Amino acid sequence: MALLAHLAGGSVALIAGPFQLWSGPAELRLSLHRWVGRVYVIAVLVGGSAAFYLSAYTQGFAKQLSLQALGVVWWATTWMAYRAIRSGRELQHSRWATRSYAVTFSFVIFRLGAELGVLRLLGSEPVAAGIWLSWMIPLLMTEVTRRFSLSPFVRNR
Questions:
Q1: Cα separation of 15 and 84, whole Å?
Q2: pLDDT digits over 50-100, tens only?
Q3: CA angle 135, 138, 143 (to 5 degrees)
Q4: What is the pTM of this model?
Q5: Residue 148 buriedness (CB in 10 A; 0-12 / 13-18 / 19+)
Q6: Please, what's the b/e burial string for 106-142 (b: 16 or more CB within 10 A of its CB; e: otherwise)?
Q7: CA 26 to chain centre
Q8: CB-based burial label for 26 (10 Å; 0-12, 13-18, 19+)
Q9: Predicted local confidence at residue 134, as pLDDT
Q10: SS3 content of the chain, % helix, strand, coil (to 5)
């Protein structure tokens, strides 16, 4: 049941994320954005809760710790986006929402790395290292893109 909740929550968050990050006409989609945002936050809470539960049954302390760190970062970035918009800080909300989705996308990055054979290059704890890298690299790329973009639009987001 926990695995199903984790897969469902993560899948809903993965699907909802692009709708949230799309920068179309705000006046046409504000209500939809709010509702999809609520669904996204609930999906992260469900997926993250199930992930914490599942991590307790994972073999190896390094894997458990890496999964729990991923869960904390997933919840924290989503919480920061939620708090920012509830406080009326739209720019900060946009930045934290982008970070949250980068972390949500970590599963895709991990699977892609595993399929490409990257895990065998990661030492004695390849799964744990792969999990860490799967959320750290997208977050780093998000920050570098935002901070060093030539486009003022991207830089301000």
A1: 22
A2: 988 988 998 989 888 888 988 899 999 999 999 999 999 988 998 999 999
A3: 120
A4: 0.83
A5: exposed
A6: bbebbeebeeeebbeeeeebbbbbbbbbbbbebbeeb
A7: 23
A8: exposed
A9: 87
A10: 85, 0, 15
Name the token pair of 83: 């708090």
Grade residue 40 by pLDDT with cuts at 50, 70 and 90.
very high
CB atoms within 10 A of CB 65: 16
Q: Domain boundaries in the chain?
A: 2-156
For residue 27, what pLDDT is reported? 59
Residue 8 in this model has a pLDDT that exceeds 60: yes
Own/partner long-range contacts of 76-81 (Cβ < 8 Å, ≥24 apart)? 77/102, 77/103, 78/40, 78/41, 78/44
Q: What percent of the chain has pLDDT over 70?
A: 90
Q: How many angstroms separate the CA atoms of 140 and 70, rounded?
A: 14
